[in-house]
Structures are given as structure tokens and as C-alpha cells.
Amino acid sequence: MKKIAALGLAGILTAASTAAIAVEPEDAINYRQGAFSAMAWHFGTMGAMVKGKMDYDAEDFSRRAEIVAQLSKLPMEGFIPGSYTGETDALPAIEQEWDKFEGGMNTLIENTAVLAEVAKSGDMDQIKPAFGEVGKTCKGCHDNFKD
Ligand code: HEC
């Protein structure tokens, strides 16, 4: 009963999605880290192609760009109250500067959507700057909110 009351309060404090109320902090941490890892898996290969370290395959690049755009929507719901200690690199600043953090996530969603769209052109002159924007978004947030 006590636990249910605490979780209910947490839900009120964050106004997070109802899914967030039902999970344990460790699960939320694993979930968001998994989403980021999958994102980095594809983004890394895309980066190798952009930098010419790997042959550019337009179809494969485009497929990965779509995946990254979809994955960018996942981590947010894993940032729940009580999940900023333990096996995590997420900084408590996330809770203190929630609007800024959420803004960063929304920028990621927007920029990865642009990249996925531009990737369809197969034109590296357009892809490069769009890829760069996404990279900056990753780094910008990590500098502020990741240990
Ligand atoms: C708005 C903030 C934000 C953005 C944007 C963001 N990240 Fe992260 N990222 C985080 C936070 C916070 C963590 C730490 C998560 C944790 O340890 O609980 C993290 C962790 C990671 C990790 C480590 C996962 C693990 O297994 O511990 C990788 C890899 C990563 N991000 C890649 C990326 C890539 C690639 C992008 C851009 C395509 C990106 N991130 C964009 C905030 C962000």
C-alpha cells in the first residue's frame, strides 16, 4: 500500500505518462539505455559512411536513418522519478531542468526526422549537414545531462 501511494505521488509530481508509474527505476534505466544503444548502433554506421570510412550505400543509410528517427521517440518515457541514481549516467539535472531536457529530446526527434527525409535523396551534400545537426543534438544533451 505504501509503495502504491508513493508511486501515485510520483506520477502526480511528474505528470509523466501512465506507463512510467508502473515500472521500477532499474527497468526504466535499462529501457532508455537500450534505446540509446540501438540508436548509436545505427548512427555510428551512418557516421562511418558520412566520413567516408565505409562505402556509402544510399539504401542502407536511408533504412538506418528511418530507424534512428523512430528510436529517438523511445528514451523519453524511461526518464522517471527515482531513476537518477544507481547504474545510470543520467544526471539529476534532468529533473531540475526538465523543460530544457524535454526540449533537447524534441529537437532530436525533429532533427532525426529531417535526416531520414533528406537521406531519401541519396545526395551526400544534403545528408552531411543534416547528419551534423543530429550529432550536435546528441552531444549538446550529453554535455548537459549525461555523466
Ligand atoms: C535530450 C538528451 C539526449 C539526447 C538528444 C541524446 N542523448 Fe544519449 N543519453 C542521454 C542520457 C541522459 C543518457 C544516460 C542514460 C542513462 O545512463 O540512464 C544517454 C546515454 C546514451 C548512451 C549510453 C547508453 C548506455 O548503454 O549506457 C549512448 C550510446 C547514447 N546516449 C547515444 C546517443 C546518440 C547517438 C544520440 C543522438 C543520435 C543521443 N544519445 C542523443 C541523453 C541524450
Output the keywords:
mainly alpha; heme; 71% helix; 147 residues; 7 helices; Four Helix Bundle (Hemerythrin (Met), subunit A); single chain; heme binding; binds heme C
SSE topology:
Elements: H1 2-14, H2 18-21, H3 25-50, H4 58-71, H5 93-96, H6 98-119, H7 124-145
Helix pairs in contact: 3-4, 4-6, 6-7
Bound molecules: heme C.
The site of heme C has 22 residues, from helix 3, helix 6 and helix 7.
Structure description:
This protein is 71% helix and 0% strand. The protein has a single domain, classed as Cytochrome c/b562 (Four Helix Bundle (Hemerythrin (Met), subunit A)), CATH 1.20.120.10. It is elongated, with a radius of gyration of 17 Å. It has 147 residues and is mainly alpha-helical. The site of heme C (HEC) has 22 residues, from helix 3, helix 6 and helix 7. It comes from Marinobacterium halophilum.
